[in-house]
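Q: A reviewer asked whether we had any structural model of the full assembly, not just the individual parts. We don't, so I'm hoping you can provide one. Inputs are below.
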Amino acid sequence: MLVDETKCVACGNCIDYCPMNAISLTAECAAVDQAECVECGVCLRSECCPTGALYRPELNYPRDIACFFSDPEATHPSTDVPGRGTEEMKTNEVTGRFPPGMAAIAIELGRPGIGTRFTDVEKVARAMAEFGVEFEPQNPVTALMIDKRAGTLPDDLKPVKVLSAIVEFGAPLEKVPAILQRLKEVEGELETVFSLDLAARVPEDGSLPFAGLELPYPLSINGKTNVGLGKPRFRE
Amino acid sequence: MTHTLHRQGTAENLAHDFCVLAISAQGINSAGSGEKLQAIKEIFLKHNPVNIGDIKRGNMYNPSTEHVMAATQDGTVVHAVYRDRETLIAVLRDLKDADTGISIVVSGLFDHVGECCQQAGLKPHTIEYSLGVHGAVERLPERSITEITTMCGHGQVSFNLVRRMVREIEAGRRTAEDAGKELARQCICGIFNPKRAEELLLKLASK
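A: Here is a predicted structure for the entire assembly that you could use as a starting point for your response.
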């Protein structure tokens, strides 16, 4: 995002709207720190600028990547789903993406509200790759990997900052405790936060899918439930 | 796309926060899904949500309910937020009867959502837990701020905007209701619960 200096009246109204705290004010004009701006578009959509001084220039690689991961209105060509993620468990009754006995793990770097550079994304992806996981092919982070078995990303992408990016893969339920334990070891090396989630099919008897597993992170009291209304139903 | 997950809060304040999402599966039932998603929006609206949105058209506060309802593209994702279990049960019953074949995901306290599914005659297929926030958590603001901002899973509501709303409520320049709506405007999907935000902002302003 940029500021048209001929239009800006230095009112400062835009500053608090920026999720990345990337806008500052001088006596004459607002300025957007390009190293911190993630092209999320919040400042534009909020219409917080009374003179329309904020604008998004044409974005080229790798800055366009920041936009795909940060602006929910942008759709990455690898997913065809708006935003930085995938359909994951939301359509599982139709896609069969996670069959019984398999868990879906998503590690969302930068969330909530801190942002991440791809350096941290790669640290986590490489650690998870040690378990031979198959990264979700529809996920835009996977699409950017230059080695999908090792979880490595292009060097020129690593300094790029995005609002968040999700390392996403499936794993057999019994492997989940060891994988999450490895994640716990990587935690201290990160410059950002991550939100962690775990999904699985509800067993036929209606019991909880992770009952009996000793996990190094606590399960939340709230979360998402796919109520099974999608059709055609996937047949195992 | 886990945007309706990771809503932080207590059992008490999450008890009035149910987010319902409808999505088609790309390459399977997305072609022609616009009409079905429009029917789902109509069901959502009939039950007086505190927010409704379409990721391709915005939410009821930005730009307006009329704009959200006016058209629906194939493959979009639509959402609505409700405050109580009775309404959620009624919405789920209508969605079941409509039989659109579009996937429906409900976010909320698992105990409450499970009970509502049972009442509506639905059997949960897949569930997703949050396992919390980790890493450099010292960079985060106090929990009372993130309980509000995490209602937008795409991170469009800034910590500083919440602080500003609190200051404006304290100064009498804005009502808590208006502040909740201003925050909801930023979350284009329409999954932000402005009534819950209003309650949490009032608590912050009275400190």
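A: Points you may want to mention in the reply: Chain B touches chain A through 80 residues (CB under 8 Å). Chain B has nine helices and six strands.
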